[in-house]
Amino acid sequence: MPKVEVINKQIWEMEMKMEKKLQEIKDNEVKEEERRKAITHICRVPGYCPVGRCTEIVFPSNLMMHMLHKHSRNASITTSEVFEHKPCVVCFDPTGYEYGENQCVASLMYAGVKDQLDTLPGISYLSLPNTALIHDHHKFDNHLPIMMIGCRCSWYCQLKDKKLERELVALNAKNSGIYVFWLVAPKTTRKLYYTLTVYDRHYLNSRSVIRTVRDYTNFQNPSDFLPNEDDYLVLRNSEVDEFLNIKTKKKSKKPPNRGIPMEIIVYENPSTTPIKHSSQKELKDAAEQVGVQYIKDTCCDHAKQTGKSSLKRNPCRTSAKTNSNLSA
């Protein structure tokens, strides 16, 4: 090939790269403008706190302050900063759950992609910036507050006929118990997804679903949203007992440790980055950080008895319904 043609080809390739780069810049500017317009139209109407015994009415921009002050100091609540596609391990203890009362399982501060400040929800126009934060909580000014809610209720909550539901609950509430879990946050300009995975005490079995975060100003009573929505995870009483898998000696006076490890992964776009679950070591480390001593004790006891590690786990099962919704 003549030298002139080689030079012309190189110039053409450089021009194409420059043109592609300029087009990307224009597309990003258009997207940013669309997001800026979307955030100006986002709803600022306050709503009741989704936690059962909390009757406070909270504005979206104040939910972070409310969550940190009211629902992050309880030892049974996991409080953590979470990042895009980075797993967070929490513990669900079913003891003490009253029928029909929402409990806060975890208080999370979503910060977008780790070490990328421009992806913070308040900066990327995903949500409104937070207000009324004080002292060291100012570092969460642009984070998105997310609360994981759990509630003990009945299968009959899925009935649209609420009169029939009440009658059946009165007749057979003990044999129809379920636990419902879902994530809530202030309204966002784009859908926010999460993967919720439940493990047993030995990490041998798991169950996983992909859902979207619900608006905290919507109905938070499972009886109101179970018949019409699917952004939640349901565990039957029998499944909870199976995941707990408590085996205690009759002579032992020490009460058994209780709790079910759960893994939460939050992300904005489910199709761009593959979901990466925690490794065995990461799950153990995370369990120790949240103070779930029962996992460590049980794994050690099992290893002593069998001579093998008990942290081997099966692949997670994601519902077909969720996959069809994402591909639609």
TrEMBL record:
<feature type="domain" description="DUF4729">
    <location>
        <begin position="49"/>
        <end position="245"/>
    </location>
</feature>
<feature type="region of interest" description="Disordered">
    <location>
        <begin position="304"/>
        <end position="328"/>
    </location>
</feature>
<feature type="compositionally biased region" description="Polar residues">
    <location>
        <begin position="316"/>
        <end position="328"/>
    </location>
</feature>
<dbReference type="InterPro" id="IPR031732">
    <property type="entry name" value="DUF4729"/>
</dbReference>
<dbReference type="Pfam" id="PF15866">
    <property type="entry name" value="DUF4729"/>
</dbReference>
<protein>
    <submittedName>
        <fullName>Uncharacterized protein LOC117568265</fullName>
    </submittedName>
</protein>
